[in-house]
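Hi all, posting the design record for the shared folder.

TITLE: backbone redesign
STEP: 1 of 1
STRUCTURE INPUT:
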């Protein structure tokens, strides 16, 4: 039976925002290892990070094997999402630029999450959620157009980056949805995240072995890979898994709309990228959507 009791939604909001801060560092961190390709970055980040999630779950994961076997389709679906997400996400940033890749990937995820909820549970988003999502997505669009820093000015390259970002968005929504549905009697958040991310991490290992040579070409590249795996991906997703105890996947993915703003801020301060005036307007729109979403919800019948 699915656990749908969210006892402390405020804590869930804080945990997702903390995870978003960590995730927002990934684009900037990757710029310190330009010799490492996006597939290798993605594979080391979520491949190693995912396996660490399984290790941390440890004995709880073993004890929950009967429940996980009974819901193997969710583990498979979530693991495939974990496999696809980093490869598409980092390729999107590499192709269209950090800002555009991030905002398309994270900006589209709440829409896909809501569609999954609607398709499986006939759960229609509330009117306020729709307004918040529209504001957030509008902010994503404005930030992409007026505040992006693409690697190439070609329309084809940007279009490919946007397409990869949409693949990342649906993958992100998919594994968040699967992990949330796994959490229930006998399967806590750490075990659910360990199962989904551990399986996805295993799938990413062949990609890492095939593309990861540049990660050991210098201490700096090795340090970037280690940081990506341990801090934003491992610790960030531990926080995200804890958040899923208190809020649903759709709400969590809406809150991650803050990640592109955080990523743009790190890029400006550390890398020296400048956010155009129009990009600031996008930040304001995204902030408004988060404020609207974070307001206490009215009680409703489930």
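Okay, here is what came back for every position:
SEQUENCE:
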């Amino acid at each position: 039976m699915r656990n749908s009791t969210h006892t402390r939604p405020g804590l869930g909001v804080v945990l997702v925002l903390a995870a978003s801060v960590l995730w927002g560092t990934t684009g900037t961190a990757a710029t310190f290892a330009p010799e490492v390709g996006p597939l290798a970055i993605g594979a080391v980040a979520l491949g190693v990070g995912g396996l660490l999630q399984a290790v941390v779950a440890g004995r709880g994961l073993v004890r929950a094997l009967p429940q996980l076997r009974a819901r193997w389709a969710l583990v498979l679906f979530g693991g495939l999402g974990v496999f696809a997400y980093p490869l598409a996400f980092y390729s999107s940033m590499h192709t269209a630029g950090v800002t555009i890749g991030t905002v398309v990937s994270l900006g589209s995820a709440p829409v896909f999450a809501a569609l999954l909820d609607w398709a499986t549970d006939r759960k229609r988003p509330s009117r306020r959620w729709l307004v918040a999502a529209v504001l957030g997505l509008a902010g994503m669009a404005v930030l992409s157009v007026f505040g992006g820093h693409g690697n190439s000015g070609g329309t084809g390259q940007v279009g490919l980056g946007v397409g990869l970002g949409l693949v990342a968005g649906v993958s992100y929504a998919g594994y968040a949805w699967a992990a949330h549905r796994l959490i229930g009697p006998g399967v806590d958040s750490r075990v659910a995240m360990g199962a989904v991310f551990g399986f996805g991490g295993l799938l990413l290992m062949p990609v890492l072995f095939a593309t990861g040579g540049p990660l050991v070409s210098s201490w700096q590249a090795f340090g970037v890979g280690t940081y990506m795996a341990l801090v934003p991906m491992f610790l960030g997703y531990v926080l995200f898994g804890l958040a899923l105890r208190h809020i649903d996947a759709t709400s969590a993915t809406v809150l991650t709309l803050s990640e592109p703003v955080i990523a743009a801020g790190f890029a400006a301060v550390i890398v020296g990228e400048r956010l155009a005036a129009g990009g600031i307007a996008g930040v304001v729109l995204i902030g408004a959507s988060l404020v609207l979403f974070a307001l206490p919800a009215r009680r409703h019948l489930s």
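COMMENT: The chain is about 80% helix and 0% strand.
Let me know if anyone wants the other runs.
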